[in-house]
């Protein structure tokens, strides 16, 4: 069982925190400056080609759109295996566009042009995903990232559902995502301006109607089957989507707003990387799966660049005795099932951050 509270008997020079089966000791007197790592990463980014910085992720976005539209033709077949493969391809492509690409666009990581990133954000999030780019930006970019694992701000509490039993939460309730996503978007957008509300409703539901129209006109489906295909396709990766959102922060050290650590400490202690996986890498992106620590340290970098700087970040953490949390997907599933009450029902414990910042 994890304990995130520092032992009060320790020297003020050292913080002890236990994450899974790993115990790290960090000497706060020797805590490195983020600027040092930033300089190393900046040098690597500047030496990289456009293809490395942006091109590979643009190519994957085009592949995702190609898969999206090819699925309409697979769905024209009456053969059950081909029809199901159409749903599967549609689901993978939808996740790649609405999670990986939308995530990058929200962070301005797709292009050096703010306008380009903004337009892509509306296309990937509102038009394709029936969610709000404005809401996503407020919750994820403006709150979760600067306040990662700060209690009451970026502590991932929006993913907690204390009234749902562990097995149902982990493997059944995520299947409601196709319905919950637009519902949550509508609830959250109501706190925005009238322009944001009108823009979201117009773009999101024009996109949904257009999607239904293509399923009916190209795939030849009647409207009820078209809606069923949309629901099933958006459930293809709904379970791992919820999983990765809770695995990579919940259960790691959390801090109070009054005792915020430095950024380099906050991100290395409060973020976890999962192993590379071909499907999840394509659909969710390296910045969400295997390079989540790198993404939190450098959120404006593309997924491919997060992968490229990973050895630099890992070496920096090793040299300065900073934690670099990793675990297997199965390890996280078992850990959450075994400690569900502590992690998802009870209030998260606060790590006492010792030492002057």
Automatic annotation (TrEMBL):
<keyword id="KW-0812">Transmembrane</keyword>
<feature type="domain" description="Fatty acid desaturase">
    <location>
        <begin position="81"/>
        <end position="326"/>
    </location>
</feature>
<dbReference type="InterPro" id="IPR012171">
    <property type="entry name" value="Fatty_acid_desaturase"/>
</dbReference>
<dbReference type="GO" id="GO:0006629">
    <property type="term" value="P:lipid metabolic process"/>
</dbReference>
<feature type="transmembrane region" description="Helical">
    <location>
        <begin position="119"/>
        <end position="139"/>
    </location>
</feature>
<protein>
    <submittedName>
        <fullName>Fatty acid desaturase 6-like</fullName>
    </submittedName>
</protein>
<feature type="transmembrane region" description="Helical">
    <location>
        <begin position="58"/>
        <end position="75"/>
    </location>
</feature>
<dbReference type="Pfam" id="PF00487">
    <property type="entry name" value="FA_desaturase"/>
</dbReference>
<dbReference type="GO" id="GO:0016717">
    <property type="term" value="F:oxidoreductase activity, acting on paired donors, with oxidation of a pair of donors resulting in the reduction of molecular oxygen to two molecules of water"/>
</dbReference>
<dbReference type="GO" id="GO:0016020">
    <property type="term" value="C:membrane"/>
</dbReference>
<keyword id="KW-1133">Transmembrane helix</keyword>
<feature type="transmembrane region" description="Helical">
    <location>
        <begin position="81"/>
        <end position="99"/>
    </location>
</feature>
<feature type="transmembrane region" description="Helical">
    <location>
        <begin position="202"/>
        <end position="232"/>
    </location>
</feature>
<dbReference type="InterPro" id="IPR005804">
    <property type="entry name" value="FA_desaturase_dom"/>
</dbReference>
<keyword id="KW-0472">Membrane</keyword>
<feature type="transmembrane region" description="Helical">
    <location>
        <begin position="159"/>
        <end position="181"/>
    </location>
</feature>
């Amino acid at each position: 069982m994890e304990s995130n509270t520092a032992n009060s008997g320790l020297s003020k020079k050292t913080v002890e925190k236990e994450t899974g089966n790993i115990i790290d000791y960090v000497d706060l007197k020797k805590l490195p400056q983020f600027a040092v790592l930033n300089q190393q990463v900046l040098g690597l980014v500047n030496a990289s080609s456009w293809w490395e910085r942006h091109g590979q992720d643009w190519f994957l976005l085009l592949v995702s759109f190609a898969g999206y539209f090819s699925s309409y033709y697979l769905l024209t077949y009456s053969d059950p295996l081909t029809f199901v493969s159409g749903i599967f391809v549609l689901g993978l492509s939808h996740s790649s566009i609405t999670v990986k690409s939308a995530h990058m666009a929200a962070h301005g990581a797709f292009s050096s042009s703010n306008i380009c990133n903004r337009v892509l954000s509306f296309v990937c999030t509102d038009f394709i995903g029936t969610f709000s780019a404005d809401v996503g930006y407020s919750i994820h970019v403006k709150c979760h990232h600067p306040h990662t694992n700060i209690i009451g701000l970026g502590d991932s509490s929006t993913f907690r559902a204390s009234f749902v039993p562990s097995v149902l939460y982990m493997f059944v309730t995520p299947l409601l995502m196709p319905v919950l996503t637009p519902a949550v978007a509508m609830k959250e957008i109501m706190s925005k301006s009238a322009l944001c509300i009108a823009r979201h409703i117009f773009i999101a539901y024009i996109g949904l109607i257009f999607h239904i129209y293509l399923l009916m006109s190209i795939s030849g489906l009647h409207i009820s089957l078209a809606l069923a295909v949309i629901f099933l396709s958006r459930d293809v990766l709904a379970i791992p989507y919820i999983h990765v959102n809770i695995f990579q922060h919940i259960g790691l050290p959390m801090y109070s707003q009054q005792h915020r650590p430095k950024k380099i400490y906050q991100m290395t202690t409060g973020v976890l990387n999962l192993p590379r996986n071909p499907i999840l890498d394509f659909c969710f992106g390296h910045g969400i799966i295997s390079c989540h620590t790198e993404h939190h340290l450098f959120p404006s970098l593309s997924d491919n660049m997060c992968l490229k700087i990973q050895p630099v970040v890992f070496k920096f953490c090793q040299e300065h005795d900073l934690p670099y949390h990793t675990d297997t997907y199965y390890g996280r599933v078992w850990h959450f099932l075994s400690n569900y009450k502590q992690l998802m029902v009870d209030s998260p414990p606060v790590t006492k951050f010792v030492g002057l910042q």
